[in-house]
């Protein structure tokens, strides 16, 4: 049995009065966060010692409530204010760990001030606030009231915390953190390598091809129309505020559709395979090329993240293959690394006599490389030393023939 920490999101529908109370809580949490950040920045500029967490809480919350300019902080739950400082402390710890080299990956910037104009506002309640889910399904929050929740499934256990989130489209969500015990899925013999691209979102080593749904491209005409409507509205007018919400809702619909599709596809792959191997693409770098819009529309990073956490949850094997591994140019039969090829070459012949589909061959090589890295004893070919692949070979050319609606093997919608 494996105990994991999961997050369940549900749509909530606050009344107009509760929306005002939530807006007040968002504002108080933002002010406390900014006050704490300002205090620490001032101490650093004046050469004073770093303000500790306890001292920061005392000065920014406890003593601030006694002043006239911050007396209204007492109108919201104190847990919301404490959690705002907890977020600030976490941001500082991540920044210091990144600067010192203890944190791997991309460099983390220092915390910045929060703005009331930010598209996303959030507050968090812990067990100390005594929030609870009532028998009638409503969520009771201190100093806010009972929120109506649209439950799509039951929680596996009592939540340890809940975050109330308001997105750019004006929607409210309750995000519960729970402890769940999951059993491993029945073991299977299949293992799969995945080659990600733009013409086909994913090509599996068994020959299955999943066409790229291109949700953003398909909604481009409607988004363009809403964007033009927004640009014609006078700044500061009510019509402009309505246009902003309409545009945000259209973008949210695209993101929700993409997320739902990726969840379904990743669940199928994890359920049907004992081990999943993918190429470790540099999405941030590809996002700075001329293919940036298509790369972001594909959402490779979120998809591989889903595969990784679902594999860990259901006791599957997940591995990433080095991004410089020449999966496209290497023959999956003889191991020969051929010269680079243009992106419009979708099939090629190896001097050994093998004929390869470009993407399927890459997926087979990713599978073999992943098995070799994990010490698999099933006779997988051990890959040669890593050879840097040309930058133009990392993705598929957007002008290649494709269909956003046709899918071979797995439904795109």
From TrEMBL:
Indicate the segments forming the Transposase putative helix-turn-helix domain, all copies.
Answer: 1-47
Sequence ranges assigned to domain Probable transposase IS891/IS1136/IS1341 in this UniProt record: 178-286
Q: Which GO terms describe its molecular function?
A: DNA binding; metal ion binding
Kindly give the InterPro entries that the UniProt entry links to this protein: Cas12f1-like_TNB, RNA-guided_DNA_endo/Transpos, Transposase, Transposase_put_HTH
User: Where's the Cas12f1-like TNB domain?
Assistant: 300-366
One of its GO biological process terms is: transposition
Does the record bear DNA-binding in its keywords?
A: yes
What are the protein's UniProt keywords? DNA recombination, DNA-binding, Metal-binding, Transposition, Zinc
> Does Lipid biosynthesis show up as a keyword for this record?
no
Q: Where is this region: Disordered?
A: 375-413
The family line of this record is: In the N-terminal section; belongs to the transposase 2 family. In the C-terminal section; belongs to the transposase 35 family.
Which NCBIfam families has this protein been placed in? guided_TnpB
What protein name does the entry list? Answer: Transposase
Species of origin reads: Actinocatenispora comari
């Amino acid at each position: 049995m494996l105990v994991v920490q999961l997050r369940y999101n549900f749509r909530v529908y606050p009344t107009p009065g509760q929306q005002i109370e939530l807006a007040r809580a968002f504002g108080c949490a933002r002010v406390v966060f900014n006050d704490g950040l300002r205090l620490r920045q001032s101490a650093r500029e004046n050469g004073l010692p770093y303000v500790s967490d306890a001292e920061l809480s005392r000065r920014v919350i406890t003593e601030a409530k006694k002043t006239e300019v911050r007396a209204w902080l007492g109108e919201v739950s104190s847990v919301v204010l404490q959690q705002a400082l907890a977020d600030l402390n976490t941001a500082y710890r991540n920044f210091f760990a990144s600067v010192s080299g203890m944190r791997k990956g991309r460099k983390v910037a220092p915390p910045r001030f929060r703005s009331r104009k930010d598209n996303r506002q959030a507050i968090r309640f812990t067990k100390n606030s005594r929030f609870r889910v009532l028998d009638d399904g409503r969520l009771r929050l201190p100093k806010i009231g009972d929120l109506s929740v649209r439950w799509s499934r039951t929680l596996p256990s009592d939540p340890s915390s809940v975050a109330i989130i308001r997105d750019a489209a004006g929607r409210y969500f309750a995000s519960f953190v729970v402890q769940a015990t999951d059993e491993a899925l029945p073991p299977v013999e299949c293992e799969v390598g995945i080659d990600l691209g733009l013409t086909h979102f994913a090509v599996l080593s068994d020959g299955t091809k999943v066409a790229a749904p291109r949700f953003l491209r398909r909604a481009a005409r409607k988004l363009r129309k809403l964007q033009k409507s927004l640009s014609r509205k006078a700044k500061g007018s009510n019509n402009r505020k309505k246009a902003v919400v309409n545009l945000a809702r259209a973008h949210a619909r695209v993101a929700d559709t993409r997320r739902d599709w990726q969840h379904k596809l990743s669940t199928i792959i994890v359920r049907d395979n004992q081990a999943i191997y993918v190429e470790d693409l540099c999405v941030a770098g590809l996002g700075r090329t001329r293919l940036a819009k298509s790369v972001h529309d594909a959402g490779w990073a979120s998809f591989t993240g889903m595969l990784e956490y679902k594999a860990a949850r259901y006791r599957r094997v997940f591995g990433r293959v080095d991004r410089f591994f020449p999966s496209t140019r290497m023959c999956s039969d003889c191991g020969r690394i051929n010269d680079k090829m243009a992106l419009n070459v979708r099939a090629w012949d190896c001097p050994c006599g093998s004929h390869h589909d470009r993407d399927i061959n890459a997926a087979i090589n990713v599978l073999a490389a992943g098995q070799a890295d994990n010490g698999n004893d099933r006779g997988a070919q051990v890959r040669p030393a890593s050879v840097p692949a040309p930058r133009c070979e990392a993705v598929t050319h957007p002008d290649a023939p494709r269909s956003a609606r046709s899918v071979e093997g797995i439904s795109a919608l």
